[in-house]
């Protein structure tokens, strides 16, 4: 009996692949983004004692702040490095092995966290943060591409959104784990940092059950038989038909760049320099990097950072404000759960325009309400309302779409490099916000949110004029629409 065709819906293997990549890599990466804030004071105290015992050096307050900043920022630097290596690993060893590499790096980082106190080693803590940073950059560059390549067209958006959904879930799980009522104590903070390793077991346990990307096998490796086996593994042993034909057509016809190969021969790997210099790839590369970088420069992490102080201004105690901030994180997760449905039912371009333009307005209102919060009492509630609205509209488009839009704008040849550059832009801008926001907040006060609002305005303009609709379209139909640089204006 024939099984369900890929074009008609989900299969068990496809659902399983999405769950395994989310549990094995995406959620642990999100966990590491969210877990480090709460135990900072405990880490600072332990670092001071450890360095004094081992090196007989008593650190000043400035030195301690520098160490904490290094512990936080080294993961962001690792994210940048991991992003740069993503294209090489994805093409050299495949999407599936790159996923395994993500899990191995995460497990290595977790072991460093769990052992750092027993070893009395701040260096081990720094190494752990570097390893999870490398895994984070690799994950955000490879996993969305992997999921998009194994998906039929109608499910490409729903599968692509699983990576950002996993990141959001991981942040909320980390917020819960790092509460003082859980593992966020002076005795157990290292367990809070490293307990995510349990999730990596999903990768190891099911690694041989999941297939390699059939498009990678066909176009990059030239393994047509392996590609066919992967399709059968994904969609049923007796299902070939239209799906394999569609895959062959995409692989054979989608090679319009300099690396194109004829007669079904494998595509040459596109180097970073060749992708950057190719004028036909300029606009899609700008779109991918602007959307991924703009996602961070829209201020999502800054809003979470500021929300605790806003809740305290309304009259919440410090502890209650932290729980309210956890509630904001849960709202972020709840809104992101609608991502797969929205990606399947709504156009990408429409969602991006709605999300970016709404966030621009909301951030402007948030700036004004914070600035006048001490003059008008009820502006505190306006601040809370704008934060909640910002999170909802952020998750409509600006949150999920940048992660996988590169898979819908690029052919297979330049796709890994483009996704890696997009991930690089994301982690680079994340690093800039993390380093600059506290200082700018002290200098500008409430007006620190204005640059985020301006970023959303600029993204709205870019999307309005240059981002073509990609939902339900073959990559080969989309590529010509962005091949003429900034002359490729979207026609309404």
UniProtKB/TrEMBL annotation:
PROSITE patterns the record matches: MFS, SUGAR_TRANSPORT_1, SUGAR_TRANSPORT_2
Gene Ontology CC entries for this record: membrane
Major facilitator superfamily (MFS) profile domain boundaries: 18-471
Transmembrane segments: 66-87, 99-120, 126-147, 159-177, 189-210, 351-373, 379-405, 417-437, 443-467
Keyword line: Glycoprotein, Membrane, Transmembrane, Transmembrane helix, Transport
GO molecular function: hexose transmembrane transporter activity
Membrane topology: Multi-pass membrane protein
Keyword Transmembrane helix attached: yes
Primary location group: membrane
Cell location: Membrane
InterPro entries noted in UniProt: GLUT (IPR045263), MFS_dom (IPR020846), MFS_sugar_transport-like (IPR005828), MFS_trans_sf (IPR036259), Sugar/inositol_transpt (IPR003663), Sugar_transporter_CS (IPR005829)
Pfam families for this protein: Sugar_tr
Family: Belongs to the major facilitator superfamily. Sugar transporter (TC 2.A.1.1) family.
PANTHER family: FI08437P-RELATED, SOLUTE CARRIER FAMILY 2
Name assigned to this protein: Major facilitator superfamily (MFS) profile domain-containing protein
Organism: Anopheles quadriannulatus
Lineage: Eukaryota, Metazoa, Ecdysozoa, Arthropoda, Hexapoda
């Amino acid at each position: 009996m024939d099984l369900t065709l890929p074009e008609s819906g989900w299969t068990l293997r496809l659902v399983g692949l999405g769950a395994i990549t989310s549990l094995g890599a995406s959620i642990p990466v999100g966990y590491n983004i969210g877990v480090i804030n709460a135990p900072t004071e405990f880490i600072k105290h332990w670092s001071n004692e450890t360095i004094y015992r081992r090196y007989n050096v008593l650190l000043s307050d400035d030195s301690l702040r520098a160490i904490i900043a290094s512990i936080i920022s080294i993961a962001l630097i690792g994210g940048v490095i991991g992003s740069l290596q993503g294209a090489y690993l994805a093409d050299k060893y495949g999407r599936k092995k790159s996923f395994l590499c993500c899990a191995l790096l995460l497990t290595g980082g977790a072991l460093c966290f769990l052992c750092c106190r027993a070893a009395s080693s701040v260096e081990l803590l720094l190494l752990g943060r570097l390893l999870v940073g490398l895994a984070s950059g690799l994950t955000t560059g490879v996993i969305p591409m992997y999921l998009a390549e194994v998906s039929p067209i109608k499910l490409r958006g729903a599968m692509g959104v699983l990576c950002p959904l996993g990141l959001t879930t991981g942040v909320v799980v980390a917020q819960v784990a790092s509460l003082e009522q859980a593992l966020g104590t002076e005795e157990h903070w290292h367990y809070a940092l490293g307990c995510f390793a349990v999730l990596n077991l999903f990768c190891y346990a099911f690694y041989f059950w999941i297939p390699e990307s059939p498009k990678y096998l066909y176009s990059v490796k030239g393994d047509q038989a392996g590609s066919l086996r992967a399709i059968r593994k994904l969609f049923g042993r007796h299902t070939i038909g239209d799906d394999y034909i569609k895959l062959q057509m995409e692989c054979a016809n989608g090679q319009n760049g300099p690396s194109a190969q004829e007669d079904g021969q494998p595509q040459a790997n596109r180097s970073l320099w060749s992708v950057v210099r190719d004028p036909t790839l300029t606009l899609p590369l700008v779109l991918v990097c602007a959307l991924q970088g703009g996602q961070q420069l829209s201020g999502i992490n800054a809003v979470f950072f500021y929300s605790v102080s806003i809740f305290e201004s309304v009259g919440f105690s410090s502890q209650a404000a932290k729980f309210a901030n956890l509630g904001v994180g849960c709202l972020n997760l709840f809104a992101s759960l609608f991502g797969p449905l929205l990606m399947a039912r709504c156009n990408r371009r429409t969602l991006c325009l709605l999300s970016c333009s709404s966030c621009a307005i909301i951030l402007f209102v948030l700036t004004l309400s914070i600035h006048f919060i001490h003059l008008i009492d009820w502006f505190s509630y306006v601040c809370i309302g704008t934060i909640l609205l910002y999170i909802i509209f952020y998750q409509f488009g600006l949150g999920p779409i940048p992660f996988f839009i590169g898979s819908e704008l690029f052919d297979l040849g330049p796709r890994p490099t483009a996704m890696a550059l997009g991930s690089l832009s994301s982690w680079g801008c994340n690093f800039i916000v993390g380093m600059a926001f506290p200082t700018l907040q002290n200098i500008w006060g409430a007006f620190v949110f204005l640059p985020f609002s301006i970023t959303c305005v600029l993204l709205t303009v870019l999307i309005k004029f240059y981002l073509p609709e990609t939902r339900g379209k073959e990559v080969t139909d989309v590529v010509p629409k962005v091949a003429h640089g900034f002359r490729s204006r979207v026609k309404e």
